[in-house]
Amino acid sequence: MANGLSKRIFTFLMLISLVAVALNLLATVEAQNKKKPRRDVPIVKGLSWSFYQKACPKVEKIIRKELKKVFKNDIGLAAAILRIHFHDCFVQGCEGSVLLDGSASGPGEQSSIPNLTLRQAAFVVINNLRALVHKQCGQVVSCSDTLALAARDSVVLSGGPDYDVPLGRRDSLAFASQNTTLNNLPPPFAKASQLITDFANRNLNITDLVALSGGHTIGIAHCPSFTGRLYPNQDPTMNKFFANSLKRTCPTANSSNTQVNDIRSPDVFDNKYYVDLMNRQGLFTSDQDLFVDKRTRGIVESFAIDKKLFFDHFAVAMIKMGQMSVLTGSQGEIRSNCSARNTGSFMSVLEEGILEEALSMI
């Protein structure tokens, strides 16, 4: 009996050891997946991986620390900030024009139809981050760089991949017109063919398209952006049970209600969005058609099966997108307030100092 008891104790201890080893390996893999710098991605002239190394070395820590507090109170702001970054980059490039308020010259980009549902609270967060950074370092970090870093941290703090962001963007002096904004933002009713062409014109390939669409794994959508698939006739590519659920949320085409983008894990940045598409539970036409179209279907399936694969490609696509038509060097300005251009057209002494320092690093 003593031997039998000893064997059971030994077996139990061995199982505990194996579980501990497995958990340790899992934690190690997760850590590697979350922080894997992608400095092999080419960057445009004027940007640098270490742009603020001397002028504001703690800029990333300041932003992430503050966003942890913000998201603890409202995780929905993570998706809102990420969406603002997308909408900024696709119109005139990643230069902070979407952050500008309208002026005497006309309404700003936020007044354009695709931007009407951007959360105003997220714009406040960006300006607050800018204020914190400027308090610590002076007016040396642009609003467009602040937004790019905030978008990355929105992904990370929601459970997504960590990646390095090349910095050195300058802020635009003017916002785009409402027509320009409307014509440059891919609509939710777009088919895969339109999206493939649109992204190719921006030097983003099919994999980039499918990966960036994965940003819809967090966030919400307003009924009018997808009820065209419900009324007057139901889109045959939509799961009927999913459609019936959406009809309860959106009883009319113009309902003011909202629906989560990813029904499986709406507040977690993971690969469940692609599982949704495979089950015909994509919210927008622009989502579901990625699974319908043969050119993108295989990528959707690969990302649904392999979260790490999705994370790797998402990080690369974000770095590429974040460099579209950026202003660098002496172009644009560094705004003292993200929602308004500076009162003077000349660069401050601080701006000149950071410019010379950054150029010496490139």
UniProtKB/TrEMBL annotation:
Name assigned to this protein: Peroxidase
Any one GO CC term of the record: extracellular region
Annotated positions binding Ca(2+) 1: D88, V91, G93, S97, E109
Cofactor mode of binding and number, as noted: Binds 2 calcium ions per subunit. Binds 1 heme b (iron(II)-protoporphyrin IX) group per subunit.
UniProt-listed Enzyme Commission number(s): 1.11.1.7
Record's keyword annotation contains Signal: yes
Signal peptide range in chain numbering: 1-31
Disulphide linkage map: C56-C137, C89-C94, C143-C338, C223-C250
Lineage: superkingdom: Eukaryota
Record site feature (Transition state stabilizer), residues: R83
Originating species: Brassica napus (Rape)
Function: Removal of H(2)O(2), oxidation of toxic reductants, biosynthesis and degradation of lignin, suberization, auxin catabolism, response to environmental stresses such as wounding, pathogen attack and oxidative stress. These functions might be dependent on each isozyme/isoform in each plant tissue.
Plant heme peroxidase family profile domain span: 46-342
Chain positions recorded as substrate binding sites: P186
Keyword 4Fe-4S: no
